[in-house]
Amino acid sequence: MKRILLLGGVTEALAIARTLGPQHIYSLAGVGRVPTDLTCQVRVGGYGGAEGLAQFIRDERISLILDATHPYAAQISQNAAQAARLSDVPCWALRRPAWQPQPGDDWREVADWAELVEALKPFKRPLFTLGREPLQHLDEIPAEQFWTLRALDVYPGNERCEVIGARGPFLIEDERALFEERRIDVLISKNSGSTATEPKLEVAREQGVPVLVLKRPVLAAMDREFTAVPALLEAITLF
């Protein structure tokens, strides 16, 4: 019996999981909501690095690893690729195409947090859409700035930062309202390539708001890589 281990992390992973039968495993890191309506098994939590993942693959007799993690989850993808080699099973990946700047965009790529902080200096009202990472820097907010931070869940902010808990997809009308109500003068975003969160980029373009884009990490090479779910699902049926 062939068994698939699906490593989730993007919206498309759930669509793949919904096609899997009870012998397969959908693996989540534990951030966000855990689906309860799937036919396949659901596993939540880490593995202890590449060697731990390889041992799990051997113990569970996994035939194929599917890496559908977030484009910025470089370490998880690296662990998956290494575990595949250690356990001698193939590893395929779903790789979302990156967003591309359009006419009227003012995108400024930054490599890391230090570059981001430097690029933020001219601005007063940034909107962060990087997930939870900025929460580690709330005590570093300059006195002249007020941060709006959007994450999957609500977390405590402080007198110069409000955290909004919200999950996509986001409507462009709501994004316009957010930018206007918060007087956003710069957007900070990962280049996730997700259609669910793309409206914020459209609003930034409309309003002439610069976008500081965190550079995508280089991901591990896989045995096969797909950019769309239908092609991946077709390949699974032939595996």
From TrEMBL:
It comes from Pseudomonas paralactis. The keyword Nucleotide-binding does not apply. One of its GO terms (biological process) is cobalamin biosynthetic process. Its EC number is 1.3.1.-, 1.3.1.54. Pfam families: CbiJ (PF02571). GO terms for molecular function: precorrin-6A reductase activity. Pathway: Cofactor biosynthesis; adenosylcobalamin biosynthesis. It is an enzyme of class 1 (oxidoreductase). The lineage of its organism: Bacteria, Pseudomonadati, Pseudomonadota, Gammaproteobacteria, Pseudomonadales. PROSITE patterns: COBK_CBIJ (PS51014). Coiled coil: none annotated. Keywords: Cobalamin biosynthesis, Oxidoreductase. This is Cobalt-precorrin-6X reductase. It comes from the Bacteria. InterPro entries: Precorrin-6x_reduct (IPR003723).
